[in-house]
Amino acid sequence: MYLAVPVLLYAGERCLRFFRSGLYSVRLLKVAIYPGNVLTLQMSKPSQFHYKSGQYIFVQCPDVSPFEWHPFSITSAPRDDYLSVHIRQLGDWTQELKRVFSEACECPQVGKSGLLRADETTKKSLPKLLIDGPYGAPAQDYQKYDVLLLVGLGIGATPFISILKDLLNNIIKWEEETDSASDLSRNSDLSVGSSEQQSSNKICSRQKKTLRTTNAYFYWVTREQGSFDWFKGVMNEVADLDQRGVIEMHNYLTSVYEEGDARSALITMVQALNHAKNGVDIVSGTRVRTHFARPNWKKVFSKTCTKHANARIGVFYCGAPVLAKELSQLCKEYNQRGPTRFEFHKEHF
Predict the structure, then answer these.
(1) DSSP readout, 239-265?
(2) May I ask the CATH architecture of the domain 140-173+212-346?
(3) DSSP secondary structure letter of residue 210
(4) Model pLDDT, residue 279
């Protein structure tokens, strides 16, 4: 009697996942294996598959195991015409997955990142993938906040990749729609009369209400310099889209002594000179300046609180549990100091 209920629930969940996975047929478009043991899979997006930034999917590879499903954050934006996930090698299943895809990959061409890569033009056939989802996560509600403070440790940056791209896409779309509505308002004012003008004004006001988030601060902390290779394309893409200065990105490499320490003074000097001359950071290989050691989280909260007084700030963290307690405590501390509200959400891997 006591075993029947949990066994039935488990069997029902497995059957449901089996049928749901059959609804979404995906084919692999691109595969890349980067330093730091990170595997990137880009697959076709089923027409009926709808998701929000921050959500995750379950992935199964029959060539690895016909029964194992593992969750991974979606790193593509909802408006992208593809689905993508970034997978860090952390266990037996991910090690075997990397081995299976390594056999199907070829060495990269000159000028392309990634140790190994493959796509639809590769002669070797790519392994089959099944997906199930999407499933909800705390980060999917980021649009409820005026300002975002995103903190990712290592591969914990993955749910925020989609959020950053989606935020920029929403702002660009909102500005385009607002401009078109303003043009309609001016034209109707000149030609027809007040009825069309009132309707266009309603459209503008409705659009302003739908866009609440105006700024995002992203802090990415990693111990391995090789991790920048798989994140390089994302940082450059965000920098290219962000012509309005909406997103502020900060990279921290903890394997190097903090700035100001004599042991890292030479690296800091060369880094500053190269960034001033070429606009590229020598550590990350992007336009985003890399800092050393761990961030001073009190300074981060203090700066954000001062810059966005009276705002509702969503603090989203994804990573090991060790940092979650400190961030949660800082949110409570700064909520007691003034009208600025910090709301903490966490995900662990």
Answers:
(1) HHH-SS--EEEEEEETTSPPTT-GGGH
(2) 3-Layer(aba) Sandwich (3.40)
(3) H
(4) 57
Q: Which element (helix H / strand E) includes 345?
A: strand 341-348
What are the angstrom distances between the C-alpha of 174 and each of 164, 178, 207, 210, 212? 15, 6, 7, 9, 11
Look up residue 296 and give its two tokens: 């001073």
Q: What are the start and end residues of each CATH 3.40.50.80 domain in the chain?
A: 140-173+212-346
- Of 47, 7, 10, nearest to 26 by C-alpha is 47
- Percent share of the chain, pLDDT over 70: 68
> Per residue in 248-281, is it b (16+ CB within 10 Å) or e — as a string?
ebbbbbbebebeeeeebeebbeebeeebeeeeeb
pLDDT tens sequence across 123-143 = 567 888 888 888 888 888 888
3-state helix, strand, coil in the chain (%, to 5): 45, 25, 35
**Ranges 19-23, 167-171, 283-287, 323-327, most confident:** 323-327
Quick one: CATH architecture of 16-136? Beta Barrel (2.40)
Q: How many residues does the chain have?
A: 349
Domain span(s) for CATH 2.40.30.10 in the chain: 16-136
Residue 116 pLDDT grade (very low, low, confident, very high; cuts 50, 70, 90): low
Distance, C-alpha 228 to centroid of its chain? 14
Residue 281 CA to residue 275 CA, distance in Å, equals 5
Q: Which amino acid is at 242?
A: D
Across-strand partners of 32?
40, 117
Amino acid making up residue 122: T
Alpha-carbon distance of 44 to 123, in angstroms, equals 19
- Going from the C-alpha of 224 to that of each of 83, 228, 285, 295, 296, the distances in angstroms are 26, 8, 14, 16, 19
Nearest of 71, 79, 88, 45 to residue 132 by alpha carbon: 71
Residues 267-292 have a mean pLDDT of 56
